[in-house]
Amino acid sequence: MLKSCSKCGRVHEHNYICKAIIIKNSDSLSNKFRRSRKWRNKRNDVLIRDKGLCQLCIRNLYDTFGKIYNNPRIEVHHIEPIVDSYELRLEASNLISLCVYHHKRADRGEIPKEILRSIANES
Prior knowledge:
By secondary structure, the protein is of the alpha+beta class. It is 30% helix and 13% strand. The chain has one domain (25-122). The strands form 2 sheets. Strands 1-2 form a two-stranded antiparallel sheet. It has a two-stranded antiparallel ribbon with strand order 3-4. The longest helix has 13 residues, at 37-49. The protein is globular and about 45 Å long.
């Protein structure tokens, strides 16, 4: 029997333990940053800049099945991950609003960073 994984978005056998479920060190530098006021403020700025919409959905890119406006599950994605480029963590050109579906695909590398960066720079 197959099941949809809530952590990675893929379909697995029901007894498969997804690697995305393994909890990373909660005291890592990136996790501390995500709890900071600076991040919350910047995240809100990016959501306002992008009007609270997934920037890939509104452009009909990468398997957009239907536009859901006013989606409460819009997330801000770091194009260059915090662990790789800590100095870019608050740069507007490194941040983009994405729905959960596109955010997971971007994290897996299925959406090229160049595309995301060009969209972020348009805004």
